[in-house]
Design a protein that fits this description.
There is one protein chain. The chain has about 210 residues and is an all-alpha fold. The chain has 7 helices and no strands. About 75% of the residues lie in helices and about 0% in strands. Helix 2 crosses helix 5 and helix 2 crosses helix 6. The model has no long low-confidence stretch (mean pLDDT about 85).
């Protein structure tokens, strides 16, 4: 009778190969979002520096003109700005050479946002900065998210139009414009919702939050 059983040393644990993250493929897959974000940050930096050095009545008037006490007027003002940015992003998608220019949209959007934020900070200090965190930053992030999604679609559509028209690439499939139109309409609905939310927050909280 064996008092001790020999341990089975032949048992080998299964080799679990860890999947290596292909950072290049990950970057290539999401490069449109990354470029949009980088250009937006560049616009923020440029706008903040420019306002700090050349602040004056002209820039201040642009910021103050965005506010209204009436909900309908505020909604129309905000919606017109939102739709302008959205429309440019869409039009560049159906443009033959729109894909290299589409990143100018987040650059300008970041510049405009930075000017407003810097205005409140320079004129009202910490209170102004707190105001921007509550009244400007959330809606700027929402709008930028929608625009980033739109830019991704526009870059893809414009590039495919370019490949089919200029390069005449046989490997490029025919463009299904209905899918792009559905995406644009979907994003457009969210632009309207975001604009309405922005207007409601500005009008309803303007009496509570006083600088």
């Amino acid at each position: 009778m064996q008092l001790f059983e020999e341990k089975n040393t032949d048992k080998t644990e299964p080799n679990v190969e860890k999947e290596k993250i292909n950072y290049f493929a990950l970057f290539k897959e999401n490069r449109n979002y990354i470029y949009s974000f980088l250009f937006y940050v560049a616009g923020l930096i440029f706008g903040a520096v420019l306002y700090a050095k050349f602040s004056g009545e002209a820039l201040n008037t642009l910021v103050i003109a965005d506010k209204s006490e009436h909900l309908l007027q505020q909604f129309i003002s905000v919606l017109s700005k939102y739709l302008l940015v959205f429309s440019v992003s869409v039009l560049l998608g159906i443009c033959l050479i729109g894909f290299p220019l589409v990143n100018a949209v987040p650059l300008i959007l970041g510049f405009e946002t930075a000017v407003r934020i810097t205005y409140y900070y320079c004129n009202y200090g910490i209170r102004g900065f707190g105001y921007t965190l509550l009244m400007i930053a959330p809606f700027a992030c929402i709008l930028m998210t929608i625009i980033m999604l739109t830019i991704n679609k526009s870059f893809e559509l414009s590039k495919r139009i370019y490949d089919l028209t200029v390069k005449r690439a046989d490997c490029v499939e025919e463009i299904n414009y209905k899918n792009y139109l559905k995406s644009y309409l979907f994003y457009g609905v969210f632009v309207i919702i975001a604009a309405f939310s922005d207007a409601v927050a500005t009008v309803s909280l303007s009496e509570i939050i006083v600088l």
